[in-house]
């Protein structure tokens, strides 16, 4: 009987550890420098919604001149990028920004940013909340972290 109680209690604790966050969460952020100076770089991360739906309305970083949400789509058999504008974030929904999909275009990356550095990414939500993460910077040909 004690063994069964222990198993049930352990499962309950494990389940509690895997609950979604109450507030939106920005994590696993990283950025890739452009292969050619003056061209845009890109940033990637995982964004998880909280207990209330929200909308990503802006992304910025003091390390770049401009940042935009984009996604890669297939048009007429060819991959193309298009701006996302605002991005709806559902309750407890996870959205992965990864190469070949949703991503952030980083325009005018500061010349002082080098592989191994970290740059701040700031997402502004429609609710007024601001999420920030430090993105690890990798070179154009380096593997993702």
Describe the structure concisely.
With 145 residues, the protein is mainly beta. It has one helix at 2-17; strands spanning 25-32, 41-48, 54-60, 64-75, 78-83, 87-89, 94-97, 102-109, 118-125, 130-138. It contains 1 helix and 10 strands; from the N terminus they run αββββββββββ.
Pick out its properties.
single chain; 145 residues; mainly beta; Immunoglobulin-like; ten-stranded mixed beta sheet; 1 helix; 10 strands; globular
Care to describe what's here?
- The protein has 145 residues and is mainly beta.
- It has a single domain, classed as Sandwich (Immunoglobulin-like), CATH 2.60.40.1890.
- The chain contains 1 helix and 10 strands.
- It has one helix spanning 2-17; strands spanning 25-32, 41-48, 54-60, 64-75, 78-83, 87-89, 94-97, 102-109, 118-125, 130-138.
- Strands 1, 2, 3, 4, 5, 6, 7, 8, 9 and 10 form a 10-stranded mixed beta sheet that branches.
- Strand 4 and strand 5 form a beta hairpin.
- The longest helix has 16 residues, at 2-17.
- 25% of the residues are buried.
- The model is unreliable at 5-17 (pLDDT under 50).
């Amino acid at each position: 009987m004690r063994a069964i109680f222990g198993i049930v209690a352990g499962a309950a604790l494990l389940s509690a550890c895997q609950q979604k966050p109450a507030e939106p969460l920005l994590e696993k952020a990283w950025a890739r420098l452009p292969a050619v100076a003056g061209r845009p770089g890109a940033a990637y991360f995982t964004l998880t919604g909280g207990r209330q739906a929200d909308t990503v309305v802006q992304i910025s970083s003091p390390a770049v001149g401009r940042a935009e949400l984009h996604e890669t789509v297939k048009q007429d058999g060819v991959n193309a990028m298009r701006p996302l504008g605002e991005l709806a974030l559902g309750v407890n929904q996870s959205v992965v920004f990864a190469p070949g999909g949703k991503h952030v275009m980083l325009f005018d990356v500061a010349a002082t940013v080098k592989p191994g550095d970290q740059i701040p990414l700031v997402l502004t939500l429609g609710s007024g909340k601001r999420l920030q993460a430090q993105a690890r910077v990798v070179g154009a040909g380096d593997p993702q972290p």
